[in-house]
Amino acid sequence: MENVLRPLIVIGGSVVLTLLVTWAVDRLLRRADARHGETPLWGLLRRCRLPLQLVLCAALLRGSYRETGLADGHVAGVGRTLTLVLIGAAAWLAVRIANAVVDATYTRYASAHRDPARVRRVRTQVTLIQRVVSAVVGVVAVASMLLTFPAMRAAGASLLASAGVLGVVAGIAAQSTLSNLFAGLQIAFGDMVRLGDTVVVDGEWGTIDEITLTFLTVRTWDERRITMPVSYFTSKPFENWSRGGAQMTGTVFLHLDHSAPVHEMREKLRDILRACPAWDGRDYGLAVTGTTPTTMEVRALVTAKDADDIWTVRVTVREQLIGWLAEHHPYALPRVTTAPAIPAPGGVPHPEHAPDGEIPRRGRG
Predict the structure, then answer these.
(1) Is beta strand 225-229 parallel, antiparallel or unpaired with respect to 215-220?
(2) What's the pLDDT score for residue 360?
């Protein structure tokens, strides 16, 4: 009977004590969250309940499993297994707590500052800090697990003796990875590009969707994802439309006949923009910027508060101007000229107007 009750008391007692402690901690966090609603930290810390339970239960069992009398021949194996579980759970709990603190800090900062560019910059830095912390904690946890094995501790001395050679070899082999890693840190704290920035890379227009320590994802207007190494943004030029403010100026080019009513088009452009909600009212204009033998180039200049609105204003102006010309001034649209050419001065007829069978002479001889 004792062989049955003792394991039940030890294991059951550890589980019950774990549940009671985590319930008390969760209740305290809930009260703190209700009392301090200005910060989401306490609510975020409640997400740590599961790793906390695992840490407490593994720690209690690690200290009392010998009292169960079970698996007496495998005491070392059971103890090492519980130690590995305890290390992994502690690393999980540390990552959860660090993420909760960082997220709460970012949320308070975002609610206190209304500058979108500054908020995106902090968000980029926070995201990379979370990834760095998770990576460091993970590496330390794995190293701690390996050191629990005696064979690994014995091999550690020999590994340290050859650390110089291995470091050189690893540095050469991981040169591109290390360059991307340092480029990611440079992007995070150098404020070169931020989450949510509108960029043009290799002719593709899109928004920064994700930034990691090694790669960066650009979400294009047609919902494609372009993944690029972060070292690209530190070594090659690219356009960042969100730097220095989100306001933008756009152009709409039309190729029209030389007889197009430019003055009336300028008035129509003003009416179109006044009825367009995406126009920010800062500026507009219409001018002839070029000519060809058959057409002239007309440029409409418009403004908007960001890249999305400038696209809406440009397509609206282009569509409505062409529709207005087609309805009220169809002669202004470009067309293929099929009329006979005017005869050249000097009485020499054009070849098309020469009598049948006669080739006009252009000189004596």
Answers:
(1) antiparallel
(2) 45
